[in-house]
Amino acid sequence: MMRWSLSLHAAVALLLSAFSVCIVAVVLWLLLGAPRVNVAGPLKPADIYDGIKIALAVVAGAGGVVALVVGYRRQHLNEVSEQREHGKAFTDRFGAAADQLGADQPAARMAGAYAMARLADEWRQERQTCIDVLCGYLRMPHAPEPPADEPASVAWRCEREIRKTVLRLIAAHLRDDSPESWQGYDLDFSGAVIDEAYFRGARFTGGDIVFVNALFVGHDRDQVVFDEAEFGSGSRVYFRLAEFRSGTVRFDRAVFNGGWVSFDSARFTGARTNFRDTTFSAGEVRFEDAEFSDGVVDFAGSTFGGTVMDFGEHRLQSLHATIPAARFTGGTVDFSRTATFTHPPRFGLQTPPEGLLLPPGTDISDLP
Predict the structure, then answer these.
(1) Where do the H-state alpha helices sit in 144-287?
(2) Do residues 205 and 234 lie in contact, with contact meaning Cβ atoms separated by under 8 Å?
């Protein structure tokens, strides 16, 4: 209706008002028992005055309707203008934060990360866009190892601190105690180099969390931590084609109680990956076509009570294709100290490969 001209808007309002008056009059007439209207001779002066007053009331009512229409349109235009100004303020802040993230000075980029995260908290309509920008920053090229010369090494360490800050900001918004939760939003870390990230206590309860082609490396005591994280129903977490090269990646005391987590075609080439005291109670965790060539994957104390964990060959009937089974060519995948093995992983193997350790008394040929 705001796109109509003022005259058309007022005419429609008057017609609707007249129609409403007629409806009310008919209802009242019926409620009074449909009395007959008696016409007794010519009109008296008092009747004429009453008619004039009724006509004036009708005119006044019509004027009131027009005034209401004008006021309503003015109020609507004011609200639209305020919303436009409000949106422009957010857009200006978004541009400023993006410019800071692209600045040459590390301090400016650090400030840009905080500004973009703050904007994501306040600008709910475009929160996903702000999150995408932060994740996009992490996907920018970054050397996994520090350069040899000192000036380049200083710049590398500064950039590393900014990336750690971005990851820390994202992880903080995935915990239940965050004032503004980002749970359920998509996070795309495809191809990112991750050498220190603390997702402790994060809840992945929806959306796509993508670590496809990510490189996990550690320096000194730095770690990637998913301790006590929850992978719940509705979440889809992709570690497909990711490489766990060095350092430690921990999923200690994490809970897999729904959703879908994929390590398909991931490469465990040197890092230590811990799933200690982890609970696998629902959902799916897949390691099809994963390569274990070095390092250690430790499931000590873990409970397998309902999750479908698959290391074996997987056939896709709809595509008439087959995903190969996991390849054990080195390193260690240790299930020997699991707490509960009532719903064991699927291997599809008759003999255990070197490096695959099962609980005492467990024959791999008896497993699915």
Answers:
(1) 150-172
(2) yes
Task: For 262-300, write each residue's pLDDT tens digit.
Answer: 999 999 998 889 999 999 988 899 998 899 998 899 999
In the DSSP assignment, the letter for residue 324 is: P
Residue 58: strand, helix, or coil: helix
- In angstroms, the Cα distances linking 184 to 8, 114, 253 are 46, 21, 21
Nearest residue to 114 (alpha-carbon basis) of 92, 142, 93, 143: 93
- Answering whether pTM is above 0.85, one says no
In three-state secondary structure terms, 231 is: strand
**Residue 50 tokens, joined:** 């009453």
Spatial distance between the Cα atoms of 330 and 246, rounded to a whole number of angstroms = 15
pLDDT tens digit sequence for 155-196: 999 999 999 999 999 999 999 999 999 999 999 999 999 988
What is the C-alpha separation between 256 and 279, in angstroms, rounded? 6
* Inter-CA distances, 9 with 6, 66, 81, 96, Å: 5, 9, 20, 41
Of 88, 90, 96, which Cα lies nearest the Cα of 119? 90
- Report helix, strand or coil for 179: coil
- Are 264 and 323 in contact, with CB atoms under 8 Å apart? yes
Residue 349 vs residues 316, 320, 360: alpha-carbon distances, Å: 19, 22, 17
Residues 34/38/43/46 CA torsion (nearest 10 deg): -60
